[in-house]
Design a protein that fits this description.
This is Tail fiber protein. By secondary structure, the protein is of the alpha+beta class. It folds into 5 domains: 33 residues, no CATH class; 31 residues, no CATH class; 37 residues, no CATH class; 73 residues, no CATH class; 74 residues, Immunoglobulin-like (Sandwich), CATH 2.60.40. The protein has 4 helices and 21 strands. The strands form 7 sheets. It has a 4-stranded mixed beta sheet, with no helix packed on it. A 4-stranded mixed beta sheet has the order 7-8-11-12, with no helix packed on it. Strand 9 and strand 10 form a beta hairpin. It is flat. It starts with 26 loop residues before the first strand and ends with a strand. The relative contact order is 0.08.
């Protein structure tokens, strides 16, 4: 057995509801010292689990007494209908000696939970109430919404004139309809250009310029962007992105990849030769801050092994028993400054 294969945990361990398998408690022929030991320590004392409660050892090999239930409708493989627990009796020791139930009816559900008159966390609504509520909510949310009209808008070519836009999402023009202007021209006395937006601010707006709002896409004075002001931004080179000191340039997907490739190192090795329990791995990253993930190739199970950085460029993997050839694959990852 390889005595180096020890993982030390200086923290609580949470397996997120996973099972402990092939695990044994520390065995003792005599009860160990409990000096400075907190309550909760569990050991195997002569083949029986014992727990230290802070003042004495408790034998956990408890045998539950048997109390056959005189009436238990839930003990069958399948109950009839939707059954509720309606009665439960216990003896003086707190053990259940009788269980009774009854079937839940539609009338029970409606009388207990259905209430169209209120909105709360206790009751539910009928399908008709839900349908009406959603329809009203959607109708309210659409009031004043900007509704894009496909096809765009071609303005008049003469100053002082206006061509009525064509509605697409309804038969007539509605408040909030938006058209993107596709050519340069005029909307009444207002010059417009490609990319500007025309928004109807009343129903049946027709070709009356007062019934529309014009949104211009152009910005007369464009300034350099900062962390508090919108504006123009320059693209950083890969070298500038990796250096990470320029606060006035933006990164692209390419420069982001360059940063990740330069700062995050990761590589996978196959370990196992049929006899060894110790495996030195040279990564060459000049750091001891290395994380690992290890999987068994046969079933892709994640395995915990001992991984110790023995130098800035090498780690040592230790296991309890020899591995078959290429039994495990281990991925090392490091973040470089």
């Amino acid at each position: 057995m390889n005595n180096n294969a020890v993982i030390s945990n200086n923290a609580h361990q949470d397996n997120f509801f996973g099972e402990l398998r092939r695990t044994r408690f520390h065995y003792y022929d005599t009860l160990p010292s409990t000096s400075d030991v907190p309550a909760g320590w569990v050991i195997d004392y002569k083949g029986k689990l014992h727990q230290w409660n802070g003042s004495e050892w408790i034998n956990l090999a408890y045998v539950h007494p048997e109390y056959p239930l005189t009436n238990n409708p839930f003990q069958t493989d399948q109950t009839s209908g939707l059954m509720l627990l309606s009665q439960i009796l216990t003896n003086s020791s707190g053990h259940v000696i009788k269980v009774a139930g009854r079937n839940l009816t539609n009338a029970d559900i409606v009388s207990i939970f259905l209430n169209d008159a209120t909105q709360s966390g206790t009751y539910t609504w009928s399908s008709n109430k839900i349908k009406t509520y959603i329809e009203n909510l959607i109708g309210q949310s659409l009031t004043g919404a900007l509704i894009y009209q496909p096809g765009g808008y071609v303005p008049a070519t003469v100053k002082g004139s206006m061509t009525a836009p064509s509605p697409v999402t309804s038969a007539t023009i509605k408040t909030g309809m938006v058209w993107v202007i596709t050519t340069n021209g005029w909307v009444g006395n207002e010059p417009v250009s490609v990319g500007d937006h025309l928004i109807a601010n009343t129903d049946n707006a027709s070709n009356v310029t007062a019934n529309y709002q014009i949104i211009e896409k152009g910005i007369p004075d464009i300034v350099d962007a900062t962390d508090s002001v919108k504006g123009l931004i320059q693209i950083a080179t890969d070298v500038e992105a990796i250096t990470g000191t320029d606060s006035s340039k933006a990164m692209t997907p390419r420069s982001t990849k360059a940063v990740l490739d330069a700062k995050i190192k990761s590589k996978t090795w196959q370990i196992g030769d049929g006899s060894s329990v110790t495996f030195p791995i040279t990564h060459g990253w000049n750091t001891r801050d290395v994380d690992y993930l290890c999987y068994r190739n046969a079933d892709n199970r994640k395995i915990n092994v001992s991984c110790v950085p023995v130098s800035p460029n090498e780690v040592q993997i230790d296991v309890l028993v020899p591995l078959t050839p290429n039994e495990y694959r281990i991925t090392l990852t490091a973040r470089l400054d």
